[in-house]
Amino acid sequence: MFNLTEDQEMIQKMVREFAEERIAPTVLERDDKHIFDREIVDELGQMGLTGLYFPEEYCGAGADYLSYILAVEELSKVDDGIGITLSASVSLCANPIFEFGSEEQKEKYLTKLASGESLGAFGLTEPGAGTDAAGQQTVAVLENDHYVINGSKIFITNGSEAEINVVFAITDKAKGTKGITAFIVEKGMEGFSFGKKEHKLGIHTSITTELIFQDVKVPVENRLGAEGEGFKIALKTLDGGRIGVAAQALGIAQAALDHAIKYSKERVQFGKPICKNQAIGFKLADMATKIEAARMLVYKAAVYKQEGKPYSKEAAMAKMFASDVAMEVTTEAIQIYGGYGYSEEYPVARLFRNAKITQIYEGTNEAQRIVISGALLR
Hints:
52% of the residues lie in helices and 16% in strands. The chain is an alpha+beta fold.
């Protein structure tokens, strides 16, 4: 179903080589010490990965969406913290500006994000508004030619490192979800600061922080879309973000399988490599089959978005299935490694820790089932 074009294969190969040569040598140290390496992230921009599918007029590469998803997958095989850093900046910040922004906003902000000059973040989640994104408490009040924003956001990927943020706030509480508005907030605006840096179970090479807004004055021209369109923008943005997370999960699962195959060929027990044991061989067969099924769902969702088709259900399916597969495959990979798999000296332990978050962010898998069933029963 998916025969990659020469250009897609070229991008895939380029990112794979970059990940193996530039990122892999330091991933264990960075993971152990919780290091966010901005230098590596900036190199993604220099390679054109931050603007892969955006038009050249906005400093993009003019490629297609599947090429971008292939890039996230390849990065995530080696360091999914870097993979989600790219996905959050592109899918959650640059993309809504591309789809909903004015020409002036695209020229001012999208060009910086697509070129890699700036990193992006997406400020939606709050202490009382996780899966229930409608429960926003951050408020934006219009005063003459600007809005004054007060509130906070938590668990924000790229957080304190992002120069450009798409942030959501209530402009009319009486209207419920139709009273939520989106804004472009720049790092350095007076009153905009960063709170707690999260100490996470996994994805240690990605930075996650709290955003704090204390009387932050945001110009009217930084409003993204019309007043009250914020919730619609958030949901549409999350649809695309789920494909990015699905690609991250796919990369994690494939890496775990690759490591498990290699180890099973090298580990000798009872006079033969453990891969010769049917119990191990069957595990590997099941892992590979589930990964291929996940890959088809992920690529299909990417192609649907690429072709302008409705893709909300497909994105939810891809994210839900690929993340569940990532957890299953990394669990089995540890089992194949045995006691060594429980040691942080081996990569499967890190992959196992990192896989879990893919079942949670961009909407929990329970929320994905709501999206899917809703589409089926519409």
